[in-house]
C-alpha cells in the first residue's frame, strides 16, 4: 500500500490506524488480507477508488463490526500475544475472529507450547453422560473427544461440544484423531444385533471400526476386516497409526480366526494386511498400540485386566514377525512374592525402551535392545515412596494407572493426579491434581494441551501452558 | 385451570417466531443477486466498482443462515428443507455462474487460431485464477464454515474443477491442447526453439488442476509418444553408429530430457521420462551395444577409452541388469586374456617379464575402474576374482612372483626411492593375495632370500624387511618366522666374525680372510651336502674358527656348507696380468689345485676336491666354457663337460676388468627335476599341516562325516594353500592308523576322535 504503509479502519464508528506491516501478519488468507489486496484496490477510470483518501491521503476502510473485539484482534496482530479484557466474553471474540479469518491466530496465541512443568488448569468441562468414561483423546488442534459407553463426545478447541459420534451405539473401546477433522472410533461388535446379516451387508453386525468427521459427526468410512476374501464382523480394541501417515492399525477380535492386528491403508481405507496372532501373543486383546518410528515396528501391549498375563511385543510388518516380546506369564505363575502386575505400558520416544507401571505405581523400564523373555527384564524404579499417595477413603474408587510421553517427559496418572517426570533419569518434577472429580481414568496429551478424564463426576480437566511471561 | 393452556401456547409461538424471522428466503435471494453481480463484474475486469467489505459482509450474513442450517441439520423438518434449498442457493449459484462464464471463455479459446491457441489458453487461465482468488475472498467465510461441515468442495478447488471440466476436458480443446503440446516437444527434440515459458505455464496449470489431470491428460500420452520416438531413433542410430557414438547420443538425449523436465515439466516426470529413454535407448539395445564389433566394451577396454567407458557405466547403471551385463563381459574378457597370458609358453621364458605383464594388466584395469567406473566395488571384485582365476591356472605363478621380487630386491631397485620400492612391493603383495598356493611361494621366497643374503646381493635391508612385514600382516607370524630367523642369523654372524678377528688377530697372521655365516638349521633352505676338501690354507683358518666358535658356544655343532660359499682369489696370468677372481667356494677349490699343476683331468679334480659330480660339472663349465671368463682351458673343446676331459690353466686369459666375476652356471628358473623336487617338498610340508588341521577340527567336533571334514580343513587352510581332497583322505587314513581317529562302527562315513 502507498501512503507510508498506513491504513485507517473505521470499525463500527471507531477509527483505528495501523500499518500494512501489522496487517500482513494476518496473512492473505484472512478477510483483512483480502481487503487490502491490490486486486480489490485497482484504480478505476470510471469510479473513484473505494476508500476515499481522508486526512493526509491515508486510505480508510469501513468495517461494520464490533470495535472492541477489533481492538483486541488488532493488538494480537501487532504484538503476537492475546490479551482479552475481562469484560469481553470469549465467545464473542471467537465469533469476530472467525469473521476476520483470524481464529487460528487466536488459538495459537491462546496458550503456549506444551511444558509438563508449567501446566495450569484452564477449564473443567462437565459431562452429562452416565457411568464411567472409557477414554479421552486430545485432538491435534487443541480439541478433544471423550468415549463414553456407546458414544464419543467431541469438543472443539473452544471446548464447545459438537455433534456426538457413535458407531451403531456399540460400546466404544478406543478413539483416535487421524487429523484435526477426522476421528477414528473402535467399537465392540454387537452380536445380538443381526440387522446386517439379513440385508446382505457382509454379515455386518455393527461395531468394528470407522472414521468420522470430527466437525460434522458424519460417518466417512467403515474399515473392514476380510478373512478368506469375506468381510467379517469384528471387535476393534486399540488404535494406532504410523508416523509417516500411511497406515492405520487396530487390534481386532473376530468370531473365528480374525484375532490379531489389522492394517489399513490410510489413503484408501482398504485393508492392507492382517497380522494373525501367534500362539502366546494375545494381539487381538491388546489395549495399547503404539507405532515406533525408529524401529519401524508396532508396539502391542495386552495388559491386565483385559488379559490375565501381560504381553508386550514389537511387530515387524515387513518381516511379518514378532521382533521383540516380553511377558510376565512365568513371573505371575511363580510364587516368588513378586506380585507386581504391569497395568500400562508406553514406548519411550527414543524407541529404545518401554516404560511400564504396576499397581503400586512403580515405574519400570524394559530395554528393547536386549532380548525380552518372560518374567524378568523389568528394571523397576523404587520411587513409590517419593509419592505422596492419597489415602483412599473407603468406598472411593481407584483407577488403573496410565502412562504417556511427550517432549521428553513422562506422564503417569495415579488416582486423582498426574505426575510429570523429566530428565534422563525421569525424576518427578510436577504433580497435577484437582481436589474433586475423583480418580483419573484416562488422560491424553495433544495440541499443546493435557486432558484428564475424571471418573466420578464425568468431568474432564484441560491443562495448558500459559503463554511465556513478558520478560 | 381453563386459562392454563393459551399462555403456554403463546410462549411457544414467540420462541419459534424469533427463530424463523432470520431465515427469510427473500433475503437469501436478494443477497445472492448482489454476489452474482459482483462475480460477473470480476470476470468483466470491472471489480474496481465493488466494495469488498460490503460483499464480504452480505455474504457473511447469508452464510450464517446456511451454517446454522447445517449445524442443526440433524433436526431437518419439512419447513427447514424449503429454507435449505434457498440456503444452498449461494453455493449452487456460484457453481452455475462460474460454469456459465467458463463456457464463454471456452468459446474464445476455441476461436484462437494456430499458435495463438496456447497463448489464449494461458491468458484466460491467468484471468480465471485472478477472478477465482477474488471470488474466494468474498466467500472466504463460507469456505471456513459452511464448506467443511457440509462436505462441499472449497471455492478455490471448485473453480479449478470447473476449469478442468469445461475448458481442459471440453471436446474442442482437450485433444487440441495435447496435440499442440506434444507437437511443440517434438519440434524441440528436432532442434527448433520453442516458447518454454508458455509451456511451463501450461504444464503448471495442469498440475494445479491436480496431479491426476497432469498425468492423464498430458504425461501418459507424452510418455507413449516419447517411447515410440526414441524407439525409432535408437533403431536408426544403432545401425549406423559405433558404440561410443551411440552412447554419446543417448547421453545427450537423456540430458535433454532432464533439462526439459527442469524447464517446463513437473519434477515428478523426470524419473518417468528418463526411464523411457533408458529403456528405449539403452536397455533394449544393451547386449548389442556391449558386444558391438570393433567398438564394444572389449575394444574400449583394450584401447583404454576412459571417456566412453565412463559413459557406458553411467548409462548402464540406470537400467536393470545393465551393470551386471557389463561386469560379465568384462570378467569373461579378463579371464580369457589372462588365461592366454599365463599359458603362453613364450611368456614363461622370462619370469620377471611374466609378472611385470600381470602387474601392467592389473594397473590398466585398476585405472579403468577408478577413472571410468567410479571405483565400483562390484567391478573391483570382478577384477580380483578374474585375476585369482587365471593366476592359479599356472602352477608356476608362486615361483615367478618370488623371482620377480628377487629381481627387484637384487638389482632392479637400485636408485629407486623408498616410496617406489613400497609401491612395487605393494603391487606384488596384491598378486600374492590371488595365489592359492601361498606355501609354495613361501618355499621359493625362502630359497631366493637365502641366495640374496648369502651372496650379499640384496640392495636394501629396509626393502627386504618391508616385504617381510607385508607378508607377516597378510599371513601372520607363523608364515614369516623362519624368514625373520634368516635375518637374525645374518646379524649374529656379522658380530661373531668381528669378535673372532678382534680376539684372534695375532693368531691368524697373514692367511686368507674368512667370513663365516652361521645359519641356524631349519631356518634356511639348505640341503645337507658333504663338505668338499678345502685347500689346506683355508682349512687352517676354518679350524681356528671352529675352535673359537665352539669355545664361545658350548653344545653346538658346526657343519660347513661348502656348496653355498664364495671366495675372492688373486690370480696372475701370462704376460703378468693380475686379476681378482670372484668365484664360488667349489670353484676356488678347483682353481687352487692349479697352483701346483698346469693340467688336471676331470677324475683327478673330482678325487682331489670330492665335490659332488653335478656341482663339479657346473663349476667346471663356468670356469672353462664361458666366453670372457674362461680362466681354464678344456680339452677337447666343447660346450659340455664329460668325465674324460682334461683341464689346463689358461694363461692366455685376458679381461678388461681387474675384478672378474665368475658366476656358476645355474638356471635362474628351476629346471624340471628341481621343480619336481620343490613340489615334492611342498607336498611333504603340507602333510603335517593338514593333519594338524584335521586333529584340531576333530578335537572340537568329536564326530564328523568325511565331507564336512574335507570342507572344514579346506576352509582352515585356504589362507595358505588349497588342499587336495585326495590328500586329505590319505591323511585321515594315516591318522586312523595312528589311532587318532576311528571310523564309527555303525556309520562308516563318520569319524570319531580318540582322545
From TrEMBL, chain A:
| Record Pfam families | Beta_prop_At2g24240 (PF25279), BTB_2 (PF02214)
Per the record, the coiled-coil ranges are none
Could you tell me which InterPro entries the record lists for this protein? Answer: Beta_prop_At2g24240, BTB/POZ_dom, Quino_amine_DH_bsu, SKP1/BTB/POZ_sf, T1-type_BTB, WD40/YVTN_repeat-like_dom_sf
Biological processes annotated in GO = protein homooligomerization
The record ties this protein, via SMART domains, to: BTB (SM00225)
Its pathway is: Protein modification; protein ubiquitination
- Stated name of the protein: BTB domain-containing protein
Organism of origin is Eleusine coracana subsp. coracana
- Gene name, please? gb15124
From TrEMBL, chain B:
Residue span, Cullin family profile domain:
396-624
Keywords recorded for this protein, A-Z: Isopeptide bond, Ubl conjugation
Kindly name one Pfam family recorded for this protein: Cullin
- One GO MF term attached to the UniProt entry: ubiquitin protein ligase binding
Return the Gene3D superfamilies for the record: Cullin Repeats, Cullin, Chain C, Domain 2, Winged helix-like DNA-binding domain superfamily/Winged helix DNA-binding domain
Q: What PROSITE patterns does this protein's entry cite?
A: CULLIN_2 (PS50069)
InterPro entries from the UniProt entry? Cullin, Cullin-like_AB, Cullin_homology, Cullin_homology_sf, Cullin_N, Cullin_neddylation_domain, Cullin_repeat-like_dom_sf, WH-like_DNA-bd_sf
**From its record, what is one biological process in GO terms?**
ubiquitin-dependent protein catabolic process
Q: Which residues form a coiled coil?
A: none
Q: Would the keyword Ubl conjugation turn up in this protein's UniProt record?
A: yes
Q: Which family does it belong to?
A: Belongs to the cullin family.
Protein name listed in UniProt: Cullin family profile domain-containing protein
Amino acid at each position: 500500500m502507498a501512503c507510508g504503509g498506513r491504513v485507517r479502519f473505521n470499525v463500527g464508528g471507531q477509527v483505528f490506524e495501523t500499518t500494512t506491516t501489522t496487517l500482513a501478519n494476518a496473512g492473505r488468507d484472512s478477510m483483512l488480507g483480502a481487503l487490502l489486496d491490490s486486486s480489490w484496490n485497482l484504480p478505476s477510470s470510471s469510479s473513484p477508488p473505494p476508500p476515499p483518501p481522508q486526512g493526509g491521503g491515508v486510505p480508510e476502510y469501513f468495517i461494520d463490526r464490533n470495535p472492541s473485539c477489533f481492538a483486541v484482534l488488532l493488538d494480537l496482530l501487532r504484538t503476537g500475544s492475546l490479551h482479552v479484557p475481562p469484560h469481553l466474553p470469549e465467545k464473542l471474540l471467537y465469533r469476530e475472529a472467525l469473521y476476520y479469518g483470524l481464529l487460528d491466530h487466536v488459538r495459537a496465541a491462546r496458550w503456549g507450547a506444551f511444558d509438563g512443568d508449567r501446566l495450569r488448569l484452564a477449564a473443567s468441562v462437565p459431562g452429562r453422560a452416565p457411568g464411567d468414561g472409557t477414554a479421552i483423546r486430545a485432538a491435534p488442534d487443541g480439541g478433544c473427544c471423550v468415549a463414553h459407553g456407546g458414544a464419543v463426545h467431541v469438543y472443539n478447541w473452544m471446548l464447545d461440544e459438537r455433534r456426538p459420534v457413535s458407531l451403531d451405539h456399540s460400546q466404544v473401546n478406543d478413539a483416535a484423531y487421524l487429523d484435526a477433522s477426522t476421528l477414528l472410533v473402535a467399537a465392540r461388535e454387537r452380536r445380538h444385533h443381526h440387522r446386517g446379516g439379513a440385508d446382505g451387508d457382509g454379515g455386518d453386525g455393527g461395531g468394528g471400526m470407522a472414521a468420522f468427521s470430527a466437525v460434522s459427526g458424519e460417518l466417512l468410512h467403515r474399515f473392514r476386516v476380510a478373512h478368506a476374501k469375506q468381510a467379517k464382523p469384528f471387535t476393534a480394541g486399540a488404535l494406532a497409526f504410523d508416523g509417516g501417515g500411511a497406515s492405520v492399525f487396530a487390534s481386532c477380535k473376530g468370531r473365528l480366526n480374525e484375532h490379531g492386528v489389522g492394517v489399513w491403508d490410510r489413503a484408501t481405507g482398504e485393508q492392507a494386511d492382517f497380522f494373525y496372532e501367534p500362539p502366546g501373543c494375545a494381539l487381538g486383546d491388546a489395549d495399547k498400540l503404539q507405532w515406533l518410528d525408529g524401529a519401524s515396528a508396532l508396539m502391542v501391549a495386552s495388559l491386565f485386566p483385559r488379559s490375565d498375563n501381560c504381553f508386550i511385543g514389537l511387530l515387524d510388518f515387513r518381516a511379518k514377525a514378532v521382533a521383540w516380546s516380553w511377558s510376565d506369564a512365568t513371573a505371575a505363575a511363580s510364587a516368588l512374592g513378586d506380585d507386581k502386575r504391569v497395568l500400562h505400558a508406553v514406548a519411550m520416544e527414543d524407541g529404545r525402551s518401554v516404560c511400564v507401571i504396576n499397581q503400586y505405581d512403580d515405574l519400570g523400564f524394559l530395554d528393547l535392545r536386549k532380548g525380552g523373555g518372560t518374567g524378568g527384564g523389568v528394571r523397576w524404579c523404587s520411587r513409590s515412596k517419593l509419592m505422596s499417595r492419597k489415602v483412599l477413603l473407603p468406598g472411593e474408587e481407584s483407577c488403573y494407572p496410565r502412562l504417556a510421553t511427550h517432549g521428553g517427559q513422562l506422564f503417569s496418572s495415579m488416582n486423582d493426579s498426574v505426575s510429570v517426570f523429566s530428565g534422563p533419569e525421569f525424576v518427578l518434577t510436577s504433580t497435577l491434581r484437582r481436589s474433586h472429580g475423583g480418580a483419573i481414568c484416562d488422560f491424553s496429551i495433544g495440541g499443546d494441551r493435557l486432558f484428564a478424564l475424571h471418573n466420578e463426576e464425568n468431568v474432564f480437566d484441560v491443562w495448558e501452558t500459559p503463554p511465556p511471561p513478558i520478560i | 385451570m381453563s386459562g392454563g393452556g393459551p399462555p403456554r401456547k403463546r410462549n411457544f409461538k414467540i420462541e419459534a417466531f424469533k427463530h424463523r424471522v432470520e431465515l427469510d428466503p427473500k433475503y437469501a435471494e436478494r443477497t445472492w443477486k448482489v454476489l452474482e453481480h459482483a462475480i460477473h463484474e470480476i470476470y468483466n475486469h470491472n471489480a474496481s466498482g465493488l466494495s469488498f467489505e460490503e460483499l464480504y459482509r452480505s455474504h457473511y450474513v447469508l452464510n450464517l443462515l446456511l451454517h446454522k442450517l447445517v449445524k442443526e441439520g440433524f433436526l431437518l423438518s419439512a419447513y427447514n428443507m424449503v429454507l435449505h434449498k434457498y440456503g444452498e442457493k449461494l453455493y449452487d449459484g456460484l457453481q452455475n455462474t462460474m460454469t456459465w462464464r467458463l463456457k464463454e471463455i471456452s468459446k474464445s479459446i476455441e476461436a484462437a487460431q494456430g499458435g495463438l491457441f496456447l497463448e489464449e489458453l494461458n491468458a484466460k487461465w491467468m484471468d480465471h485464477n485472478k477472478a477465482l482468488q477474488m471470488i474466494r475472498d468474498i466467500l472466504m467465510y463460507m469456505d471456513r464454515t459452511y464448506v467443511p461441515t457440509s462436505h462441499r468442495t472449497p471455492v478455490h478447488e471448485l473453480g479449478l474443477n470447473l476449469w478442468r471440466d469445461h475448458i481442459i476436458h471440453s471436446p474442442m480443446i482437450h485433444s487440441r491442447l495435447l496435440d499442440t503440446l506434444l507437437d511443440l516437444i517434438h519440434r524441440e527434440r528436432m532442434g527448433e526453439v520453442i516458447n518454454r515459458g508458455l509451456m511451463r505455464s501450461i504444464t503448471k496449470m495442469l498440475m494445479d488442476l491436480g496431479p491426476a489431470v497432469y498425468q492423464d491428460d498430458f504425461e501418459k500420452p507424452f510418455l507413449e509418444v516419447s517411447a515410440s520416438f526414441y524407439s525409432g531413433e535408437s533403431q536408426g542410430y544403432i545401425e549406423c553408429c559405433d558404440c561410443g557414438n551411440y552412447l554419446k547420443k543417448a547421453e545427450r538425449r537423456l540430458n535433454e530430457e532432464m533439462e526439459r523436465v527442469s524447464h517446463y515439466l513437473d519434477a515428478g516426470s523426470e524419473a518417468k521420462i528418463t526411464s523411457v529413454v533408458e529403456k528405449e535407448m539403452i536397455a533394449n539395445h544393451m547386449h548389442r551395444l556391449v558386444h558391438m564389433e570393433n567398438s564394444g566394451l572389449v575394444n574400449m577396454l583394450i584401447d583404454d577409452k576412459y571417456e566412453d567407458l565412463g559413459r557406458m557405466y553411467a548409462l548402464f547403471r540406470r537400467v536393470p541388469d545393465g551393470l551386471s551385463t557389463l561386469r560379465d563381459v568384462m570378467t569373461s574378457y579378463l579371464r580369457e586374456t589372462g588365461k592366454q597370458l599365463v599359458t603362453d609358453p613364450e611368456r614363461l621364458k622370462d619370469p620377471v617379464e611374466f609378472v611385470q605383464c600381470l602387474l601392467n594388466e592389473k594397473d590398466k584395469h585398476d585405472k579403468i575402474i577408478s577413472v571410468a567406473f567410479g571405483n565400483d566395488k562390484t567391478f573391483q571384485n570382478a577384477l580380483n576374482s578374474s585375476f585369482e582365476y587365471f593366476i592359479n591356472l599356472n602352477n608356476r605363478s608362486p615361483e615367478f612372483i618370488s623371482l620377480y621380487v628377487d629381481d627387484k630386491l637384487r638389482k632392479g631397485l637400485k636408485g629407486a626411492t623408498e616410496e617406489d620400492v613400497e609401491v612395487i612391493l605393494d603391487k606384488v603383495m596384491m598378486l600374492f593375495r590371488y595365489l592359492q598356493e601361498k606355501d609354495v611361494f613361501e618355499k621359493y621366497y625362502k630359497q631366493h632370500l637365502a641366495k640374496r643374503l648369502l651372496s650379499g646381493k640384496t640392495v636394501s635391508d629396509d626393502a627386504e624387511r618391508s616385504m617381510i612385514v607385508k607378508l607377516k600382516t597378510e599371513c601372520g607370524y607363523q608364515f614369516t618366522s623362519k624368514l625373520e630367523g634368516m635375518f637374525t642369523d645374518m646379524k649374529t654372524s656379522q658380530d661373531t666374525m668381528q669378535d673372532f678377528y678382534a680376539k684372534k688377530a695375532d693368531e691368524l697372521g697373514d692367511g686368507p680372510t674368512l667370513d663365516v655365516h652361521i645359519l641356524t638349521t631349519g631356518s634356511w633352505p639348505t640341503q645337507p651336502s658333504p663338505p668338499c676338501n678345502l685347500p689346506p690354507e683355508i682349512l687352517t683358518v676354518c679350524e681356528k674358527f671352529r675352535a673359537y666358535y665352539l669355545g664361545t658356544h658350548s653344545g653346538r655343532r658346526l657343519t660347513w656348507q661348502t656348496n653355498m660359499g664364495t671366495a675372492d682369489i688373486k690370480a696372475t696370468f701370462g704376460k703378468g696380468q693380475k686379476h681378482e677372481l670372484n668365484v664360488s667356494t667349489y670353484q676356488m677349490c678347483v682353481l687352487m689345485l692349479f697352483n701346483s699343476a698346469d693340467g688336471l683331468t676331470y677324475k683327478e679334480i673330482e678325487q682331489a676336491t670330492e665335490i659332488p659330480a653335478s656341482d663339479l660339472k657346473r663349476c667346471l663349465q663356468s670356469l672353462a666354457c664361458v666366453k670372457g671368463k674362461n680362466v681354464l682351458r678344456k680339452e677337447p673343446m666343447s660346450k659340455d663337460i664329460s668325465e674324460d676331459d682334461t683341464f689346463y690353466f689358461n694363461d692366455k686369459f685376458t679381461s678388461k676388468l681387474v675384478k672378474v666375476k665368475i658366476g656358476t652356471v645355474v638356471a635362474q628358473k628351476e629346471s624340471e627335476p628341481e621343480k619336481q623336487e620343490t613340489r615334492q617338498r611342498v607336498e611333504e610340508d603340507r602333510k603335517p599341516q593338514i593333519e594338524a588341521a584335521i586333529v584340531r577340527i576333530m578335537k572340537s567336533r568329536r564326530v564328523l562325516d568325511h565331507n564336512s571334514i574335507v570342507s572344514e580343513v579346506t576352509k582352515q587352510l585356504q589362507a595358505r594353500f588349497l588342499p587336495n581332497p585326495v590328500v586329505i583322505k590319505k591323511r585321515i587314513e594315516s591318522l586312523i592308523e595312528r589311532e587318532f581317529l576311528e571310523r564309527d562302527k555303525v556309520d562308516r562315513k563318520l569319524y570319531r576322535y580318540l582322545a
